[in-house]
Amino acid sequence: MNKSIWQQFKPHVIAIGIFLIISIFFCLPAFKGMVLNQSDTLGWKGMIEQSNVYKEKYGHWPLWSNYSYSGIPAYQIGIEAKYNITLAWLHNVFTLWLPAPASFFFLACVGFYILALAMRLRSMPSIFGSLAYAFASYNAIIAAVGHNTKLMSMGYAPALLAGLLLLSQRKYILGFIVTLIFSTLLTWQNHLQILYYTFIIAACFGVGMLIKAFKEKDFKPVLYTAGLAIVSLLLGIFSYAVILLPTNSYAKESMRGGRSELTVSPDGKKITENKTKGGLDKSYAFHWSYGVSETMTLTMPAFNGGSDGPRELPEDGKALQALQESQLPQEFANYIYPALSSYWGAQPGTSGTVYLGAIVCLLFVTGIFVVKSWHKGWIIAASIIGIVLAWGSNFSAVNYFLFDHLPYYNKFRAPTTALVIPQLTFALLAAMTLQSLFFTEWDKAVLMKRLKLAGIGVAVVLAILVGTYFTGSFKASGDTQLREGISGAITQMASQGGQPNEQVLQQARTISSSIMNGLSADRKTLYESDLLRTLLFYVLAAALIWVGITKKLKGEYVLAAFILLNLVDLLPVDRRYLKDDNYVDQADFLAPLAANAADLQIKQDTGYYRVYDQTAGNPFADSRASYHHNSIGGYLPARLSTYDDLITHQLHKQNMAVFNMLNTKYFIGVNRQTNQPIAQMNPGALGAVWFVKGLQYEPNADAEMKALDNFSPADTAILDQREKSKVAFEPQYDSLATIRMTRNINDEVSYESNAASNQFAVFSEVYYPNGWKAFIDGKETPIAKVNYTLRGLPIPAGKHNIEFKFEPESYHTGNLITLITGIISILLVLGGAVMLWRNRNNQDPSTAVRA
To answer: Does the N-terminal peptide bond of residue 338 adopt cis geometry, omega within 30 degrees of 0?
Structure first.
């Protein structure tokens, strides 16, 4: 092997080896055949099952699924292009075919390392930043719950930014190739919120580059960079048109598109607040907003406690001690304890704290004063933007305005996700700080002056942390309600159903207060423990900086110590949320989806019907029933807006008429004697299709929904008056008229009808305008939306064959665009690689094309 080539690649091979080893050991159970017990992944498996069965039979996935929410576009669960000619096949190369979640952490390391190299950082600062980015606590948290596409998107985001950096350095061929490859890979993960945040960082970079161009009066590189970046980004986006176009079409009809026309809430009140045109309601979108002071968790994990539940509370804590001293029955104490939470921040709940690392934050603050690069400005700006966006409703003056006016921003929920921006930028500036401190020539006096300023910044952070320890309440907004709940439960238990006396009431109040006071004390103990560890890491990091700048140790040794110390800081916090206990055998993971006695009982009925599983907690946020049956529930955050309205206004109040029109033939409940699931048949289910006696027109969506409160779906179909043009004639009752379903294979549904007079048929299938077409004897007929969410057709007298076909134009157009873009992208990458190779071997540098 050519020695010079090996010397050139040796540090990168070592870096990849480090990433691989740490990812493997951190996720060791995954290499023993175990899988993470991810709730979100389990929910997805329940939703995707029918598509998998369909694919085994027909060789491709369906475009429509019957298993969830009475029918939804299947491409919201899983989809594939007809022709998989795409750069996205490189995904396995960048993850080395590692099992999840090791592949997620490894990919994040590699993606950031590419960015750091593009920033012209040395290998060791790049390794530090890569590990800091990959093992920030948020990655461990979302890996534990199953946000897999988000993690993979976060892995590719820094690599895409690396392509933009290379373009700005006039390495146009290489920059174009890198941007094209990683924009394609990022888009193919189908997590548009992370893609959106990546574009925000890119926009900050673009503004920074433009400011630099103004100062230097040299705009040519900006124009070249912008032009090539736009082309490569568009190619990356177009390569995923097969899902982006159908998703865009679906979004207009979904909760994210603000499709609902209702102006009255289920309790009859006028809806006047938090409505957003063409997007999510603010109350829903901003539900998880990071507290302003909660931002301090970036540098101290327990600033607002930890996650929901008591798992991070001390095992010998005051709350548990108060429970034990209360002399409550053990069974009752076991019931109360899980309700106690170490978290006391602004969110309604959380799976864990977003921690970037004490050392990373110290280096970020230091970098503000010591890094000498034009990149510093846009990095700091992006960091501030990400933090402000994460505050959500806690900084509504800014964020509500952005939600209403920033293009497409109102499609996303959970503002806390925006903290992925500072997760990237903090690690990047921290790595740049290490390079600046230990591999840059400094005037000693200038350096000490800047470090003093950095020290003041760090001191301010520490003052906030220490001050909060002495002044914080360590109480959550829901603690009062929890105290009252515990008191009420104790009172009910002690009075045994009778009227409680004052002594019982006082005892319940005393015990509940003791427990809650103990909980506050435990939270303070948790805070104290993390405060001390943060102070320790600050001191150790400061000591390493001093050792480095005074040349007590070589820069490489100091960098190695920083890398090791940072891992000692981050990995234990990650282990709070991603432990070996999170892994289970594959069979145990799928066990919650296993068929129970009720499922087996229902499956004996081979007809067409739907199921309502009342044992699942919230049937509309659980996919267990969808794994086995056509369900009226499911697990999908972005439901069709009309169906979500139906859930909120009718199904939640158990309107049997609506259950019947959805063909809900079986209800799964719990047998009180055996405490086991049992199936109960609903004789009122109306079947797949039926003729109604008459039509009832309503002036608007509110009136149409209100009419569902009290109607007979077997006799009457309710329509918005805007649907009247789709009804060619009024039905004439014929007691002998028949209509039946003859076939249903997801994307194609067939019926036969026979009637002596004109009829109107209601189909127990969800109305979706973007793809479904109806044909009577081969002639297309417009589909009417009836009963707020179902399909209806006027059927003329006589015998007829009726067909519904799901043929969304967006999917077929997207497929063609994906194919063409994939071919173009592959040719461009191959052509660019050839040009790079030729330039590399060109003996006359003056004639070489810039790479």
So the answer is: no
- H helices within 472-596, ranges in order? 479-495, 502-549, 555-577, 586-590
Question: Which helix or strand (DSSP H or E) is residue 23 part of?
Answer: helix 3-26
Single-letter amino acid code for the residue at 839:
N
The residue among 642, 639, 636, 610 whose CA lies nearest residue 789 is 642
How many angstroms separate the first and last alpha carbons of the chain? 25
666 vs 655: CA distance, rounded Å: 15
Q: Helix (H) and strand (E) counts for the chain? A: 29, 18
- The three-class DSSP label of residue 615 is coil
Measured CA to CA in angstroms, residue 393 lies from 169, 344, 591, 782 at distances of 39, 17, 39, 43
What is 122-179 written as a DSSP string?
Answer: -HHHHHHHHHHHHTSHHHHHHHHHT-HHHHHHHHHHHHHHHHHHHHHTT-HHHHHHHH
Residues pairing with 763 in the sheet:
689, 791
Give the angle 174-817-47 at the CA atoms, nearest 5°. Answer: 105
- Residue bearing tokens 């329940």: 46
Q: Report residue 280 as tokens.
A: 């999510």
The residues facing 690 across adjacent strands are: 762
Taking the chain (851 residues) in consecutive chunks of 10 residues, what is each chunk's mean pLDDT? 73 96 97 93 92 92 94 89 89 96 98 98 97 98 94 98 96 97 95 96 96 92 94 95 92 82 86 65 90 97 92 90 87 88 92 96 98 96 98 96 93 94 98 96 93 97 97 92 90 79 87 94 96 97 96 92 98 96 94 94 96 90 94 91 95 96 97 90 97 97 96 97 96 95 96 97 97 97 98 97 97 95 97 91 46 37
Backbone CA torsion sign across 524, 526, 531, 536: positive
Predicted local distance difference test score (pLDDT) of residue 474: 94
Strand partners of residue 254: 640
Output the pLDDT for position 762.
98
- Residue that has been written with the tokens 């002399």 in this structure: 327
The token duo for 358 is: 């004490």
Instruction: Report the C-alpha dihedral over residues 732, 733, 738, 739, rounded to 10 degrees.
Output: 60
The rounded distance, in Å, linking the Cα atoms of 251 and 379 is 32
Long-range Cβ contact pairs of 714-721 (< 8 A, separation 24 or more): 714/660, 714/686, 714/690, 716/692, 717/692, 717/760, 717/762, 717/786, 717/787, 717/792, 718/786, 718/787, 718/788, 719/695, 719/784, 719/785, 719/786, 719/792, 720/785, 721/697
- The helix (run of H) or strand (run of E) holding residue 413 is none
Can you list the alpha helix ranges (DSSP code H) found in 439-501?
444-471, 479-495
d(CA 139, CA 152): 10
Q: What tokens appear for 269 in the block?
A: 């009140």
Lookup result for tokens 């829903």: 284
Spacing of C-alpha 235 from chain mean position: 24
- What does DSSP say about strands 716-720 and 694-698: parallel, antiparallel, or unpaired? parallel
pLDDT the model gives residue 277? 66
Instruction: Single out the residue of 42, 216, 39, 23 nearest to residue 113, CA to CA.
Output: 23
pLDDT for residue 849:
35
Contact call for residues 534 and 358 (beta carbons, < 8 A): yes
What sign does the CA torsion over 404, 407, 412, 416 have? negative
Residue 414: which H helix or E strand, with range? none
Pair 129, 428: CB distance under 8 Å: yes
pLDDT value at position 587? 92
Q: Is the Cβ–Cβ distance between 838 and 850 less than 8 Å? A: no
Task: Return the closest-CA partner of residue 429 out of 454, 465, 446.
Answer: 454
| Whole-number Å distance between alpha carbons of 479 and 483 | 6
* Gap between the Cα atoms of 750 and 732, Å rounded: 23
**Residue 808 in tokens:** 């969304």
For residues 138 and 105, give the distance between their C-alpha atoms in angstroms, rounded to a whole number.
Answer: 11
